[in-house]
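Structure first, sequence second, as always.
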C-alpha cells in the first residue's frame, strides 16, 4: 500500500485546500523556505500516526497549528459581529494498492469512493452554548479549548494508528532538541528498539543508581544541611534523582559515541547516525513510507553522496518522500521525481514537454533549483549581462548583491523559454533581460504567451533600434546588444578612463568591447567610477523592489 495523494486544509502555511499527488517510489519536494515542504511531511505523518514532533497531538493542540491568516480573518469577523465559521484543519491521505474494505468509502472531502484516512481538528459541538457566550466578548485568540480531533477512515469508522496498514517513519536529522542534555530524537529511536523486558531492565537499573546516589556520604550531608537550614517547608527536603515516572530514564540518560556525548560530536556525524538508526530500527522495517527532512544538513559533498546511496539502497521497496534544497540530492534521486513548490502551486519537471524535460535532465540541476528557490529571478543572456545587472542593482542598494535580497541573476544563454515554462507553472516572479537584436516585434511575439494578464513574468529590453555603418569582417555590427547600449548611455571619454584605453572613435570602442566582452564587464563591475545604465536595466532594478 502506498500514498496516492494528500489533501491539506488550513494546516500551518497552507491556506485553504492544497492537494499533492505522489509517485509510488521516490518523491523529491523542492521549494523555498516557507513553501510548505516540512509541513507536507508533518501532515502526512500526523494523519498516519497521530504524532507531531514525537508527541501525540491530542495533548498538544495549539492555535499555531492553524493557518495564521485564516485565524486572523475569523477573529476580525467575529469581533465585528459578523458570522464566521470556526477554522478547522483537515488532512486526508489517499491510498493506492491492495484493497482494504475498512479504509474504503466516500468519507472524504471529494466524496469519491477511495481508500484513505481523514484527520480533522474541528470545533466540538458539545461546547456550543459556552462558545456562544464567549463570542459576546472580544476574542484575541482561537478558542482551542473547544476543539476536538476526529480521526476516521474513508469508511467513516474511528481509527487509531494501529488500524492503518500503511506505516510511516519521519526522519528529521536536522532536529536538535535536547532535554537534560539528551537528544530527544535519538533517545526516542533507541527506546523504540527496546522490547518491554529490556525497558523494564533499564528502568530497574536506573532505580539502583538512585539508591547508590542517596547512600553517598556527600549527598547525605547536603540533604541534612538542607533540612537544618531551610525554611521552605515543614516537610523533609532533599535532592535526588528524578524517578517521578517509570520512564524517567528516557530523558536522563545520555547517548555516547567513543566516550563522547552525542550532542558534542559533529553535526554531520549526528545527521548520519540519526538517519541510520531510524532506517535500521524495527519501525522503519515495518514502515511502507519513509519521510526524510532535508538530508543534506551539515554534510560534506562526499558524505552526502554516501548518505543518499544508503537511503536509496535501504528503502528500495518503500515509498520515499524527501524535502531538499540541494541540487545534488535532486539529481542523484532523479529529476523525474522532482516536485516544485511555490505559493501553494506545484509542478513536476516530468510534466513539462519532452524537449524541455530532456533539457533540464542534462543540466547539473543547479540553475534549475536557483530559479525555484529564489524570491525573484532575473534571467539574462550571458555572464557579462549577469555582472552588469548585479552592478546596477548594487548601485541603488547600498552595495548589496541581489542575492542578498533573495533575487538571483541567472545566465541562461538563449534558453529563456525553457526556464519560463517552469516559472509560469509555479507562478515565480521572473524578469527576462534581453537584447532586442534590431527586431522588437519578433521579441514581443516570442514572449507574448508568457507575459500580460496576471502573469508574474516581465520582459525588459531597449525598445529603440540603433544602427550604424560598422562592419567586423563581412558582418554588420549589432548595435542592439548590451555593450553598445552601455556605451550609448555613457560616453567614449568615460569608458576610455574605465578601460584605460585611448580611442577617438566610437566604433573603435565598439570593436574593443566586442572582442573583450568578459574583461570589459569585469572592469565595469569593479570600477568605482560613475557608470550610467540603459533605461531597460534601470527598469528591471525598479522591478526588483516591487512587491
Amino acid at each position: 500500500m502506498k500514498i496516492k495523494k494528500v489533501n491539506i486544509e488550513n494546516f500551518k502555511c497552507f491556506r485553504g485546500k492544497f492537494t499533492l499527488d505522489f509517485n509510488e517510489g521516490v518523491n523529491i519536494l523542492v521549494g523555498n523556505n516557507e513553501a510548505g515542504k516540512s509541513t507536507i511531511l508533518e501532515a502526512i505523518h500526523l494523519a498516519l500516526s497521530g504524532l507531531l514532533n514525537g508527541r501525540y497531538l491530542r495533548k498538544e493542540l495549539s492555535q499555531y497549528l492553524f493557518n495564521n491568516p485564516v485565524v486572523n480573518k475569523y477573529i476580525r469577523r467575529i469581533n465585528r459581529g459578523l458570522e464566521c465559521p470556526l477554522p478547522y484543519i483537515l488532512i486526508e491521505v489517499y491510498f493506492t494498492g491492495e484493497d482494504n474494505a475498512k479504509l474504503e468509502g466516500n468519507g472524504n472531502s471529494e466524496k469519491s469512493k477511495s481508500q484513505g484516512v481523514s484527520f480533522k481538528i474541528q470545533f466540538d459541538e458539545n461546547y456550543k452554548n459556552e462558545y456562544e457566550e464567549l463570542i459576546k466578548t472580544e476574542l484575541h485568540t482561537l478558542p482551542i479549548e473547544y476543539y476536538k480531533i476526529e480521526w476516521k477512515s474513508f469508511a467513516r469508522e474511528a481509527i487509531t494508528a494501529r488500524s492503518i496498514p500503511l506505516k510511516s517513519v519521519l526522519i528529521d536529522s536536522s532536529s536538535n532538541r535536547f532535554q537534560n542534555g539528551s537528544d530527544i530524537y535519538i533517545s526516542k529511536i533507541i527506546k523504540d528498539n527496546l522490547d518491554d523486558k529490556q525497558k523494564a531492565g533499564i528502568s530497574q537499573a536506573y532505580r539502583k543508581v538512585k539508591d547508590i546516589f542517596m547512600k553517598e556520604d556527600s549527598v547525605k550531608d547536603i540533604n541534612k544541611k538542607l533540612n537544618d537550614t531551610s525554611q521552605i517547608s515543614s516537610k523533609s527536603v532533599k535532592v535526588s534523582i528524578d524517578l517521578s515516572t517509570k520512564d524517567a530514564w528516557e530523558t536522563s540518560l545520555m547517548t555516547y559515541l567513543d566516550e563522547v556525548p552525542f550532542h558534542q560530536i559533529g553535526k554531520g556525524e549526528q545527521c548520519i547516525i540519526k538517519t541510520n538508526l531510524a532506517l535500521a530500527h524495527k519501525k522503519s522495517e515495518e514502515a511502507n513510507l519513509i519521510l526524510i527532512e532535508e538530508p543534506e544538513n551539515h554534510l560534506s559533498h562526499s558524505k552526502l553522496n554516501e548518505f543518499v546511496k544508503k537511503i536509496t539502497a535501504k528503502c528500495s521497496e518503500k515509498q520515499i518522500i524527501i524535502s531538499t534544497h540541494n541540487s545534488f540530492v535532486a539529481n542523484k534521486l532523479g529529476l523525474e521525481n522532482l516536485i516544485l513548490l511555490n505559493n501553494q502551486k506545484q509542478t513536476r519537471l516530468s510534466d513539462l514537454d519532452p524537449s524541455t524535460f530532456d533539457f533540464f535532465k542534462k543540466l547539473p540541476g543547479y540553475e534549475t533549483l536557483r530559479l525555484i528557490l529564489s524570491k525573484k529571478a532575473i534571467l539574462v543572456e550571458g555572464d557579462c549581462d549577469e555582472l552588469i545587472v548585479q552592478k546596477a542593482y548594487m548601485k541603488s542598494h547600498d552595495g548589496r548583491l541581489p542575492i542578498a535580497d533573495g533575487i538571483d541573476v541567472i545566465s541562461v544563454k538563449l534558453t529563456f523559454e525553457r526556464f519560463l515554462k517552469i516559472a509560469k507553472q509555479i507562478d515565480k516572479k521572473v524578469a527576462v533581460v534581453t537584447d532586442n537584436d534590431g527586431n522588437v516585434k519578433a521579441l514581443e511575439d516570442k514572449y507574448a504567451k508568457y507575459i500580460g494578464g496576471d502573469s508574474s513574468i516581465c520582459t525588459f529590453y531597449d525598445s529603440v533600434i540603433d544602427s550604424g555603418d560598422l562592419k567586423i569582417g563581412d558582418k554588420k555590427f549589432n548595435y542592439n546588444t548590451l555593450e553598445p547600449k552601455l556605451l550609448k548611455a555613457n560616453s567614449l571619454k568615460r569608458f576610455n578612463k574605465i578601460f584605460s584605453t585611448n580611442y577617438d572613435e566610437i566604433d573603435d570602442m565598439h570593436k574593443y568591447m566586442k572582442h573583450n566582452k568578459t574583461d570589459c564587464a569585469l572592469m565595469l563591475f569593479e570600477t568605482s567610477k560613475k557608470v550610467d545604465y540603459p533605461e531597460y536595466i534601470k527598469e528591471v532594478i525598479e522591478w526588483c523592489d516591487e512587491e
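Margin note: The chain has two domains: 1-178+287-342, 363-547.
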